[in-house]
Amino acid sequence: MGKDYYKILGIAKGASDDEIKKAYRKMALKYHPDKNKDAGAENKFKEIAEAYDVLSDSSKKTIYDKYGEDGLKEGGPGGPGGSGHGAHYEFRGDPMNIFSSFFGGSDPFGSAGMFDMGGGGGHNMFFSQMNGGGGEEMFGMHGGGRRGANRQDPPVMHDLAVSLEDVLKGCTKKMKITRKVMADGMQRMEDKVLTVTIKQGWKSGTKITFPKEGDQNPNRTPADIVFVIKDKPHPKFKREGSDIRYVARISLKQALCGFTYNVPTLDGPDYPFKCTDVIKPQTHRRLTGKGLPNPKSPNVRGDLIIEFQIEFPTSLTPEAQRQLEAILP
User: Where does the J domain start and stop, copy by copy (predicted)?
Assistant: First the structure.
């Protein structure tokens, strides 16, 4: 029987264009994957876009109302091209582009922060990272389009891997982009260097936006270039917010009899951690202020969490077993 597009949008068959638009607006905002993290929200968002793509197009809607989804796929009654209604229908649209076009590039959530509408918008951007240098960070919303004005292309998203050492101290990265620009009514390729400033303690997922630095296309507002901070895997530490975790492997003898362990740190020499207590499996200890800066208060640092893993011997001699049996309670 195919998909029930009216049911997907929560409206009755024969709904008016205005009712279809209102239903799409409500459902798209509810299930947008940047706002709804529930399992299945992304697939629901795609279904909503597909339903709107059909019901908002008068020719598609006419065929669908008469013959359903199967009729769309077959091009109308009588099989492929049977009634001259057009080519077979197959939804290949980008749900994010449909969303962006519907809202005219503005921020439908009304937030003052940045809102990821996803997708690269078909821009042929090329990025390369250069050596660090001076510069200043730039923030901005990717939207800004107004109804009746040139619509803005969707943001061009680019992951930027940053080491924990860079997050600790802060740094700048120079990113070279190649984009299309308009000159004398013609498009040409241009290289440009964007300086990305990364502040101390910034978390993975932080967005840095360069407004309207994307491809320049006729009658379109260039896309924003958005860099998304991602933690680069570290050979020794795992990040947990402003804390970092280090796994220290010790022997059973050390766990029972005490030890001194040189714990590595991010910004200095190893810390000699001395322990005289019995260390049980899954024991944790904290080195206060040895983690990463708090992004809101860079002078305040998180902790370095030491997680002890005890390595048990694989076998014991009979004599060793007798001695342990006599010693242990």
Answer: 4-68
Give residue 95's identity as a one-letter amino acid code: P
Nearest residue to 228 via CA among 193, 200, 198: 198
Q: pLDDT over 70 for what percent of the chain? A: 79
Sort strands 243-251 and 259-263 into parallel, antiparallel or unpaired: unpaired
Predicted local confidence at residue 63, as pLDDT: 86
CA distance 4 to 324: 72
Q: CB-based burial of residue 222 (10 Å sphere; 0-12 exposed, 13-18 middle, 19+ buried)?
A: buried
The Cβ of residue 277 has, within 10 Å, a number of other Cβ atoms equal to 9
> Rounded to whole angstroms, how far apart are CA atoms 144 and 234?
38
pTM over 0.85? The answer is: no
- The answer for residues whose C-beta is within 8 angstroms of residue 326's C-beta and 6 or more apart is none
Domains and CATH numbers, the chain: 5-102 (1.10.287.110), 126-231 (2.60.260.20), 237-327 (2.60.260.20)
- Any idea what DSSP says for residue 89? P
Q: Are 301 and 289 in contact (CB under 8 A)?
A: yes
Q: Find all residues with CB under 8 Å of 136, minimum gap 6, and list them.
A: 195, 197
pLDDT tens, 176-204?
989 899 888 788 899 999 999 999 999 99
Render 33-78 in DSSP notation, one character per residue: TTT--STTHHHHHHHHHHHHHHHTSHHHHHHHHHHHHHHHHHTSTT
| 218, 148 contact by CB (below 8 A) | no
Of 123, 121, 124, the closest CA to residue 97 belongs to: 121
What DSSP element (H or E) covers 261? strand 259-263
- Here the contacts of 89-92 (C-beta below 8 Å, separation 24 or greater) are 89/54, 89/60, 89/63, 91/49, 91/50, 91/53, 91/54
Cα 101–chain centre separation? 22
